[in-house]
Amino acid sequence: MDAIFQAFQLVATWPVILTVASAALFGLLVGAIPGLTATMATALLVPLTFFMDPIPAVGAMVTCAAMAIFAGDIPGALLRIPGTPASAAYANEAYAMTRKGEAETVLGACVLFSAIGGLFGTFVLIFAAPALAEVALSFSSQEYFWMALLGLTCAVFLGAQSPVKGMISLLIGLFVATVGLNNPAGVPRFTFGSTEMMAGIDFIPAMIGLFAVSEVMRTVAAGAPAWENVQVKVGNIFGNWGGMFTRYWRQQLRGNLTGTAIGILPGAGADVAAYVSYAVSRRFSKTPEKFGTGHLEGVVEATSSNNASLSSAWVPALVFGIPGDTITAIVIGVLYVKGLNPGPTLFLFNPQTIYAVFLIFILANVLMIPLGWLVIKLAKGLLKAPRSILMPIILVFCIVGAFASNNAAYGIILMLVFGVLGFFMEENDIPIAPCILGIVIGPLVERTFVTTMIKSDGSFLTFVERPIAAVLFAVLVLIWGSILYSRLRGNREEATG
Amino acid sequence: MRLSDTMLGAILLMLGLAMGVYAYGFPAIPGQRYGAATFPLLISGGFVVCAIVLLVSGFRASPTPLVMRTEWTRKPGALTAVLITILCVIAYIVLARPVGFIPTSTAILLILFRLLGVSWWKSIAFAIGATLLTDYIFRTLLLVPLPFGVMPRMPW
């Protein structure tokens, strides 16, 4: 109880509240602008968080990500261009409703169910994370090894169009993670004589390059065309809330549950949750024929789901230090910088910090309703903001942000290299998310593997001798088995059909 | 620029092999079988496996050109625009220290705005405005030591 009280004191200060409010607006703006993702918003925020205290820094990222995921629905509904990949699953459906003149209904549903989904995920986080942390206290390197491997598996197979390309992306990330001195043997690897590379590849410039610079390059290549006719005449978005709530509570609940479950899975994030939930909704709907023609049901389920997964993705991130999605991958980097090393001991030694983060989660999802309404009202102006002016300014921000990570030109060079890499990867349909997770999880996999092998004197049996490790191994085998099975069956059906 | 499966596979194969050979030379932890080289060798093995999968599917499929130009590169000026963006960042890396943040950033913004067809007046106004704002946020509020170069310190 004492810790909760302390947490209130930590959050209820002007600097924290102001930071959270400005991060919320920033997230809403970035999310509402098509092509700028929630991950990019978080990555652009990182250089600023260096200069904040731990609570406002983490609070800013929590709020910004939650707002950006919701705000991605706005251009999805009004222009059929999803603002973030997490909204892509139902952008068509939402736009079809706008075409029918129901823009206020769909946007109202997006705000309401995003906020509820986010709160649901937050409550699961609040109750599940400390309980899991107790279990995790007994974890040794074997369990962490399997957890990390589970995260990598999900990163490759969930959401990737082609598993081989997902795998390539993951390997690139793992390779990047091996650079430098930071390995169990303390040997400089792949530094090619550079002193700066001894410290490893700095995560933040890499992130800014992969997510922001590559996007700037893509937009510049397209000549930054303006968006076509924005149809914006949004009436009262609150009008139908009561009706929607009683009508779609089943879909909403199912969306919350699916989203939370996918979020907790290490390596899978909001976009996967939205696609799965939309498909589930259609599968169990009484009127599946209405899907795609501007039907609210699937939108409700998917928009609940992506926000729920955003909150619950923090469970593996805080408890095991294994990111649930690309956003928490970035956050883990910031947590380390702030001395809040993720892991079960965080709950023992710093409970007030964790509770403060939980409080900010709740605050952010409650704030979403009034601020979301404001941004929907402003949407017309926002969607007219010319990309030809926005993109160069974002590039300068990237440069300064990458420089700020260690106050040297090395950061900018890294940013540029990763920007070009990200651009090239997207050109070849190689997804970026597995690469990020590889960079974050890679060192953990390596460290736990080598430590375990040294402990056991080279015997592989030790990986399955402990009960929890054996269970995790079984889960991993099941996932791989089911993937292989469905692929084989798919191939056979292709061959016979 | 889009590489065919065969091309991508060939590049990855070379990358994986080079990495494996390089990693093989890493010193071992004395008395241990697993050390600095273990993980890089596994990764290089992974690259080789992916490369082989791509090569096989590349050979099976109907022959495609090794390097294809994607849709956007056919648009006149698109490739140049990307090159100019990259050159701008390189120019910043080279010039920021001797010349200073404010002139370099203004120049880069001006070039990119014009490249994207923003009118001269707007370009100049936004380039100077955005630069001064960035300078204020990062140097003054966040104390990032952006290089001064030839510019005198701003009054804030």
Structural write-up:
The complex is a heterodimer of chains A (497) and B (156). Helices cover 75% and strands 0% of the residues of chain A. In chain A, α4 (54-71) runs antiparallel to α17. The N and C termini of chain A lie far apart (63 Å). Chain A is globular. Chain A has helices spanning 2-11, 14-32, 38-49, 54-71, 73-79, 91-99, 103-136, 141-157, 163-178, 195-198, 203-221, 241-247, 249-264, 270-284, 296-312, 314-320, 326-337, 345-349, 351-384, 387-406, 409-427, 433-455, 462-465, 467-496. With 497 residues, chain A is mostly helical. Chain B is an all-alpha fold and 156 residues long. Chain B has helices at 5-24, 38-60, 78-99, 101-115, 120-141, and strands spanning 2-3, 67-68. The radius of gyration of chain B is 24 Å and the shape is flat. Chain B starts with a strand and ends in a 15-residue tail after the last helix. In chain B, 31% of the residues are buried. Chains A and B meet through α9, α11, α20, α21 and α22 of A and β1, α1, α2, α3 and α4 of B.
List keywords for this structure.
heterodimer, A: 497 residues, mainly alpha, 24 helices, B: 156 residues, two-stranded antiparallel sheet, 5 helices, flat
- Low-confidence segments of chain B, ≥5 residues, pLDDT <50? none
* H and E order of chain B: EHHEHHH
Mean pLDDT of chain A: 84
Instruction: Work out the largest interface and the residue count of each chain.
Output: A-B, 60 and 67 residues
Number of helices, counting only DSSP H or I runs of 4 residues or more of chain A: 24
What characteristic shape of chain A results from the CA principal axes? globular
Number of E strands of chain A: 0
In total, the number of strands of chain B is 2
β-sheet strand percentage of chain B: under 5%
pLDDT < 50 stretches of chain A:
none
| Helical fraction of chain B | 55-70%
Label the structural class of chain B.
mainly alpha
Strand fraction band of chain A?
A: under 5%
Oligomer category:
heterodimer
Helix fraction of chain A by DSSP (H/I, runs of at least 4) = over 70%
